[in-house]
Amino acid sequence: MVLVRRRVAPIPPTRGFLALPQAAPLGKIFWKRSRPSRSILWKDQALLRVSDGDSIRIDTAPGTDPDTIGVLNLGLALLLAHRGYHLLHAAGLARRGRCAAILGPPGAGKSSLALAGACRGMEVISDEIVPFRRRAQNFTCPGGNPLIRIDASRPARWPEPAETALRHARATQPGKTKVVLDLTRFRLRCAGGSSRLSLVLLLGPRLGGRGSSFRLTRLSNAEALLGLLQSTYDRRVQSPVERRRHLSVCAALARAVPAWRISIRHGIENVLAAARGIDALLSRMETGRAHTLGPAQGHVVRGERIERHAIDLEPGVGLDRAPRVAHAYRQVRRATRTT
């Protein structure tokens, strides 16, 4: 059980906080960690504090209207990290106890893909944060978050009941670029229990021209590790010990779980088709037929046709031996400083 408290109160100064080098919807973020709590401060606007792994407090300055859902998501992320979960900036979709983590930067289409999966009857874990834990050789995700945010400024025709949910959200949240949908209110499904993390998908660039609705390309273990580390939700606030532990767990996940890059053509009908493809991948894993979709690194799936493509990796990046894992991480650290 988590206790969430929100109040209007003066916001403290940034003294004692560390500035985080990243942009945010509410402006510059400051961070502070102590043994019993972790805090995030938006200068003159809001303060988020997570204490003892079971309580969240949100203070907002008088006269401000921060993104409450976004702040609460950050609080839940910090709380789960305090409880030992690893956090991915990803959407999550589940089917019969198996789930897929869909990684991608903001604006890549994670929320749209999560809603498309819900339209197919899949269970939504999240549209932004996917927590997971390692249990022996398995990786599990807890229950889901029924609230997702969709860009309502783009004209699109969704299948029912998603279209009704969007109309209701636009009417009740006027002036919002992104509206919040409560999936359970419109008979869409949210994961109610834990799921086994069985598939990792990295959202690639949008497809151009004409052709199939989406394309799947199998990734190597090293490419999967790079994607997981770059999509770590709390990577900027991890301690050195947490960072090393997270690297070890992500390396094990990259070895144990198949990873694909998925590129989708523009248009809701193509997003819906991609959700069908993800659903089919999870179903094949459940029946033990996942290998029929292309087991090897560099395979590309276009419709029912499988092609072989070469993948260029930087020399020395691999996961076969521990020193190579460390070498891959050194390269990732250099890459993530520029993102």
CATH class of the largest domain: Alpha Beta
Average pLDDT value?
80
Number of helices: 7
What fold name stands as the CATH topology of the largest domain? Phosphoenolpyruvate Carboxykinase, domain 3
Estimated helix fraction: 25-40%
Shape: globular
Please compute the radius of gyration using only Cα atoms. Answer: 20 Å
Q: Report the biggest beta sheet as strand number plus sense, adding barrel if it closes.
A: 6 strands, mixed
Distance, first to last CA: 35 Å
Protein described:
- The protein has helices spanning 68-82, 110-119, 162-172, 221-230, 240-256, 268-287, 322-336; strands spanning 3-8, 18-19, 29-33, 37-42, 46-51, 55-60, 86-95, 98-103, 123-126, 129-135, 138-141, 147-151, 178-182, 195-203, 214-218, 259-264, 299-302, 305-308.
- It is of the alpha+beta class and 339 residues long.
- It has two domains: 3-68, no CATH class; 86-336, Phosphoenolpyruvate Carboxykinase, domain 3 (Alpha-Beta Complex), CATH 3.90.228.
- The chain has a six-stranded mixed beta sheet with strand order 1-6-5-4-3-2, with helices on one face. A five-stranded mixed beta barrel has the order 7-8-14-11-10, surrounded by five helices. A two-stranded antiparallel sheet has the order 12-13.
Write a short abstract of this structure.
The protein has 339 residues and is an alpha+beta fold. The chain is built from seven helices and 18 strands.
